[in-house]
Design brief:
alpha+beta, four-stranded mixed β-sheet, 25 helices, 11% strand, Thioredoxin-like_sf, 6hp_glycosidase-like_sf, 6-hairpin_glycosidase_sf, Thioredoxin domain-containing protein
Length: 681
Amino acid sequence: METHSFTNDLITESSPYLLQHAHNPVNWKPYNEAALQQAKKEKKLVIISIGYAACHWCHVMEHESFEDSTVAAVMNKNFISIKVDREERPDVDQTYINAVQLMTGSAGWPLNVVTLPDGRPVWGGTYFRKNDWINALEQIQEVYSSEPEKLIAYANRLEEGIKSMDLINLNTEDISFKDFPTEKIVAAWARKFDTENGGFSGAPKFMMPNNLQFLLRKAVVENDTELLKFVTLTLDKMAYGGLYDQIGGGFSRYSTDEKWHVPHFEKMLYDNAQLVSLYSNAFLITKNPLYKEVVEETLNFIATDLTNEEGGFYSSLDADSLDENGKLEEGAFYIFTLEELQELLQDDFNIFKEYFNINSYGKWENNHYVLIRKKTDAEIEKEFNLTTETLRQKKEGWKKTLLTYRNKRDKPRLDDKTLTSWNALMLKGYADAYKAFGTRKYLDAAVKNATFIANKQLQKNGALFHNYKNEKSSINGFLEDYAFTIEAFIDLYQITLDEKWLLLSKKMTEYTINNFFDSEKHMFYFTSKKDPAIVSRNFEYRDNVIPASNSVMAKNLFLLSKYFEETGYAEISHQMLKNVSGEIEQYPSGFSNWLDLLLNFKNSFYEVVVVGADAPKIVTELNTNYLPNCIIAGTKTEKNNPLFTNRFVSGETLIYVCENNTCKLPVTESKIAIELINKKE
């Protein structure tokens, strides 16, 4: 049995990130009321150190500083030290990210902040070398001992700054979204498009799936061929890049260079979830077999590496793993030498080398290669005189051989906590993949995960938990948990027609309005009124790598207003969009999910209602089309819901295409319904 010189209070936590620090000589405490009260009682400054399990530089700082007894002695003498997993506590993370942003102009992880005993920040930054960290702490402690009023005055100013960062004002102007200048906005945004490599100019390069979802929709709905070309170029290049795991499926978090070649190798659930949705939607439009391959391989990776027995999804895989010398190295699990590849692939190496650029284009460092593509399958087939089927079999064989070999290596560490918000994103990914490909196991995985959330994370009053591990949920849900779960359950209803998911969506929406909604500003706070504020209670409304919880909630309210004829929901959604409309024009990439909602108001939006014995079959047919501008509802029998009243005709299955509750004559074929939905005004 392993013995440790030190054990601190993190030993009872379930987060893998916190448990990684449980044997540091630092007297770490988890973020809770007891730790904060101790700081107040002992009048000590607080160190709040925030990171996450897949964060490379978090591990570096731990090894250099937090495992060092000299550093620990300084921290333990004068400070209460609190470790936070940012994924478990996005509320704590956001508050102190904002603070460091204000103090230094930039922020990231690891995030290290010193606060007064009451939690208000006075100093902070990201990664620090050992000596810099010790010197900074000693200086702050010196000021706190000799001139505490200086720190208190600074904390007061900073508190005002934090409170003003996510301020939202109620917009009372009359705004016509029909006339909103989306053309002008996208034209200005297009100046940042990388038309050679796809994505957005500069490095590092993040995938930003939500940006691409909006641009894809705008391109298709408004028949903008140039914009569609840019989106598909981006999707192709990302799928060809080293950012995509060419052997095992799934995407890394971002690329360190402009051509999507060398990633920061951690794999996050939330990225892969959104990319499955994006590539599935793009397949509906283009029928590009590459997109199908990406979805299949990514979902295979999710099923193999990130799914538990209950149907819940784990959070991430680390970037680092042990190399052949037993040293922790970033990307060690994923890279190959020329000699390894030659030995493994033998006679096929010449084709493989050309396919995955085992040349100067694909070379990384220390004579290692990150697999990256440049040519299409058709180009490779022509070059080597191969049939499509032969190349397909070869690719399958290469991947199998390399995967078997790779799996003998030390695997990256798994963050096996389950987060409700990220699970809901993945559930939506499975639902979108089922729409596109009709693969039964995708539907089964979606239903299993939704059942897991409904049984384990959702309480009888409509409240959600945020986290789950070892049969335990300990943190109350944040707005992101409600927004993404409601969205995923609406999506699940549209493929199953099981009304249970729609009713649960409405129940959670009512809970969210009662506990998160600010009736003055007409926006939702990130935290429930039942939880204490950290410095201040903020609104999260700018879209990022993950869409903002407020933008998702506004979309949910719009859709649910159609399902339940709840005009109050539609009014809140409309007002929320009005509140952010001023910022949209200045910074469209931070408001792409809001822009997606705006298209619902700008263009025609339909309620498509299928009633009759063949409703499930018709709905499945409808779902194989890209239909971002409608809701779908269906029933095999007579029902009294607003959408179904007086629409059942015995012995027939009828499709009603309606706009604002005004319906065209019912039709009996999905093909005709699609024509009605896609008819240009």
